[in-house]
């Protein structure tokens, strides 16, 4: 068997992807979890954070788990997200990706996480 391609770390918490109006300021609750991502566009304010901090009145899609690609990754690397998303797409698994300066985070619905880990492991990805 060939060496692993990349290592991914499965984060323990469950996360939510929230949508707020583009005129709203970043709420304090959004910055409470160890992992959070905030994107503002002319259309919306999107927040990804641990679902335990999300107020019940917020429009949100919950029950996401996160696979973190162990980095840092060099900007010259090509096709990392494409390769992973193709493997998962072939298994009918939807993803939501978040990229940072150092690495990529792949959100997968909790109901699909076991199938995702199994599928990636079969393709020589290590999941810890």
UniProtKB/TrEMBL annotation:
Domain A9CJY8-like N-terminal positions: 13-57
Residue span, CASTOR ACT domain: 60-121
Signal peptide (from-to): none
InterPro entries from the UniProt entry: A9CJY8-like_N, ACT-like_dom_sf, CASTOR_ACT_dom, CASTOR_mTORC1, UCP008459
Gene3D superfamilies linked to this entry: VC0802-like (3.30.2130.10)
Pfam families for this protein: A9CJY8-like_N, ACT_7
Protein name: Uncharacterized protein
UniProt source species: Clostridium homopropionicum DSM 5847
